[in-house]
Amino acid sequence: MLTKEDTRKELFTMGHTGCSGCAQSMSVKLILEELGEKTIAASATGCLEVFSTRYPESSWRIPWIHSLFENSAAVATGVEAALRASGKKEGITVIAQGGDGGTADIGLQALSGMFERNNDVLYICYDNGAYMNTGYQRSGLTPYDAYTSTSPAGKESFGNPRPKKYMPDIAMAHRIPYTAVASAGYPVDLKKKVRKAKSIKGAKYLQIDVPCVPGWKYEPRYSVKLAQLAVQTGLYPLFEAEYDKIISVKKISRKVPVEEYLKLQGRFKHLFKDEAGRAEIEKIQKIADENIGRYGLL
Amino acid sequence: MAQNIRLMQGNEAIAEGALLAGCNFMAGYPITPSSEVIEILSSRLVRIGGVCIQMEDEIAALGAVLGASLAGAKALTASSGPGISLKQEHIGYASMCEIPCVIINVMRGGPSTGLPTLPAQSDIMQARWGTHGDHAIIAITPSSVNESFYETIRAFNLALKYRTPVMILTDEIIGHMREKVVIPEKKDVEIIDTALPDIPPEEYKPYNFKSGKVTPLAPMGEGYRYHVTGLIHSETGFPSQKIDIIQDAQKWLYDKIYKNIKDIEKFEEFLTGDAEILVVAYGSTSRSARQAISMAREDGIKAGMFRPITIWPFPDEQVSRLAKRAKKILVPEMNMGQVILEVERNACGSYVRGLNVVNGEPITPDMIYASIKEISSL
Question: Which of B29, B46, B57 is closest, CB to CB, to A157?
Answer without folding.
Answer: B46
